[in-house]
Design brief:
Elements lengths: L5 E7 L5 H11 L4 E4 L5 H12 L5 H22 L2 E5 L7 H12 L4 E4 L9 H6 L2 E3 L2 H13 L3
Parallel strand pairs: 1-2, 1-3, 3-4, 4-5
Helix pairs in contact: 1-6, 2-3
Length: about 150
């Protein structure tokens, strides 16, 4: 697709450099891509609602405000994406990533899931909705290259 710039949304785990690896790999291949992602500053993501809209004594409402503000960005960028990559890491359960995958699936977006083999059973429903399941950022780069350029 000559002339098309692909919008790639990178969802999920924020504790490793997987996004950087994918972005650098795509840059090395000179792929016509633009990346977007959720807010990856954990503290900012958690506290944005109360920081902007005022304090909440109840932790539920504190988190609720933050989730709603973060959803403005997340929903907009997923809806604009051509491809959604969803990473599930080892350190924490990424419930938000599972939600992003479901949201992207409901919108009919192509999804690439990225996780280690030991998560296969826990993520079987997410994997079933994906068009590809990768184990490494390098595989994601190869998948994007093939999908965009048609070359191996």
């Amino acid at each position: 697709m000559a002339g098309k710039t692909w919008q790639i949304y990178l969802s999920g785990e924020i504790h490793t450099d997987w996004r950087d690896q994918i972005e650098m790999g795509c840059a090395d291949l000179d792929l016509p891509v633009v990346f977007s992602a959720p807010v990856t500053d954990h503290a900012a993501s958690d506290d944005c609602g109360v920081e902007i809209l005022g304090p909440e004594p109840n932790k539920f409402w504190h988190d609720h405000k933050g989730a709603q503000l973060n959803a403005i960005r997340t929903r907009t960028l997923i809806s604009e994406a051509d491809i959604v990559v969803v990473r599930f890491g080892d350190k924490y359960k990424q419930w938000n990533a599972a939600f992003d995958a479901g949201y992207a699936s409901a919108l009919g977006k192509p999804i690439i899931v990225l996780h280690p083999p030991e998560h296969q059973h826990a993520l079987k429903e997410v994997d079933a909705a994906a068009l590809a399941v990768a184990e490494t950022p390098q595989q994601v780069v190869r998948l994007l290259n093939y999908a965009i350029s048609g070359q191996l």
